[in-house]
Amino acid sequence: MSRTSKNSNKNATEEGDNLNNIWEKFELKLNDWVTTTLPTIVSEVIKSIAGEAVKKHIDEYVSSTELKKSLGESIDFDSQQLHDEIKSINTELKTGLMELKNEVNMLKNENDNLEQYTRKCNIRIYGIPEAPTESTDDIVISFLQKELGVTISEVDISRSHRVGKKSNIARPIIIRFTKHNTKVMILRKRHLLKRNGRSLYRIQEDLTQTRRQLLKYLHDNCNDKVEKVWTIDGIIHFRPKTNTSVILKSTTLSSCINQLDKY
Rounded to whole angstroms, how far apart are CA atoms 179 and 165? Predict the structure, then answer.
């Protein structure tokens, strides 16, 4: 074989090898592109297509009357539910407040009853002139003997003293007797003060502040409805003018007003 023929064959072989190498590299790159890049491109395309479709569907639904109706019903339902819950809470609060008020009033009444019980042997005498230095025990003993004809001694008095702030008007004297019967006897004879024309003097049971206010209310505001007012053991009694055969009793202003409203 000639040298020229050998060279030609060698060149052809080298070119074939080069083509094979190029093809192998191309196949590797193609495989790599197919396995890595192509799926990403396909995925993005699918996402884009799907996204547009979903967006279109959402836009159509948002603008639809079906959604508006659904939202409206939901809002109405939530609003009504909130209103019902607030109404329920408000009712519970009102009920609780009313129960609390009733309990407070009950405790006030019980406390007032206990306080009045501690005064069961007490009276107050109004109108006796006040001296700078005085013995209220001696004044009371002398007053009762002179005005009511009732004789008592110091052993019948547990304690006596003036009450209230000093002023130009003589302060009342409060007296606690050792026996309840002594108090009752004096109260039964206090009508003699008016018979003797001693209108400056007044004898009353020693009442709690609540009951004194009730007594004052009846005297000052109910002359057109009440014929007579008096007390027995701390309970205020009053007789309505429209029915003098009825005797009403009360220890609280609210109870008194409710009873008078019936006459």
Answer: 28
Q: Which of 202, 195, 196 is nearest to 219 (CA)?
A: 202
Identity at 115, one-letter amino acid code: E
**Structural element, H or E, at residue 185:** helix 180-189
Q: Which amino acid is at 257?
A: I
Nearest Cα neighbor of 231 from 200, 176, 190, 259 is 190
pTM, full prediction: 0.62
Going from the C-alpha of 242 to that of each of 28, 132, 239, 249, 262, the distances in angstroms are 121, 48, 9, 16, 10
Tokens of 147: 């005005």
What is the rounded distance in angstroms from the CA atom of residue 171 to the CA atom of residue 3?
158
Query: How far is the C-alpha of 239 from the C-alpha of 226, rounded, in Å?
Result: 6
Does the CA dihedral 119-123-126-132 come out positive or negative? negative
Cα distance from N-terminal residue to C-terminal residue, the chain = 154
Cβ count near 43 (within 10 Å)? 10
Q: Which of 138, 137, 122, 107 is nearest to 174 (CA)?
A: 122
User: Per residue in 210-219, pLDDT tens?
Assistant: 999 999 999 8
Mean pLDDT of 71-90: 69
Grade residue 124 by pLDDT with cuts at 50, 70 and 90.
very high
DSSP for 126-148, please give it. Answer: E-----SS--HHHHHHHHHHHHH
Q: 206 with 174: CB under 8 angstroms? A: yes
